[in-house]
Amino acid sequence: MLVLSALVQPTVVRAQKPPGDAEARFSAGLTHLREGRAELALEEIKKAVSQDDKNPYFYKGLGQAYAQLRKWKDAIEAFRKSLQLNPYFVDVRNDLGMALILSGKREEGRKEFETAFSDPTNPTPEISARNLGQSYLEDKNYDEAIKWFRSSIARNKIYADPYLGESDALIATGHLDEAIAQLEAGVREAPSDPALLTGLGEVLLKAGRFTEARVQLESAIKKDPAGAWGRRAATVLKTVPK
User: Fold this and answer.
1) Number of domains, the chain
2) CB within 10 Å: which end of the chain, N or C, has fewer?
3) CATH number of the domain residue 76 falls in
4) Whole-prediction pTM
5) Cα–Cα distance, 78 to 72 (Å, whole number)
6) What count of other Cβ atoms lies within 10 Å of the Cβ of residue 108?
7) Residue 35's domain spans which residues?
8) How far is residue 148's CA from residue 142's CA, in Å, rounded to a whole number?
């Protein structure tokens, strides 16, 4: 249902006020980054760094540009430099952990997520816990995956991703009814979330509860008619027996 690389997109950093036109370069780079022009983003952010090489925000942005290009070694180096300049920039640990995991250094990546989760200054501990859960899910360590997904939900009960991840882990271990119950709990917390509605519809379909599945999928389409989850719900709905 989910993949790690689609998991989590950390918040794009905001520029401080460095000297010269470094801020303008960085801002231009972030615009390119948000719009998927990673090569152009990299070019602009490199210029910003060359003008102000003591700014941890610039290095975070640099790492994100490298990560979009799947240049994991360079991304890891940039994120580590950001943390070196500002050890309290805890959000960078989510970026670093992701780059490490996607580069194949999964245990190192998980250590970064755990450090971020345990840091009391972390503004989004639910993302760190969700990333841990997803990494364990991909490694088929379902008990650890479920534990971390539940830790994520405990920190933010309207965050859809951990409900979906926990559902995948429960289904993989033969607990379909429990997966349905967890997704229903998520929908109660966030009744307008199309991801949760679609996820619940898919699992109800697996359980043969076709009428209920149809209701959830149709709700998802209404909530997100042009979005990715709405389109997914529409595709799944075509497979529901009438």
Assistant:
1) 1
2) C
3) 1.25.40.10
4) 0.85
5) 10
6) 15
7) 21-123
8) 10
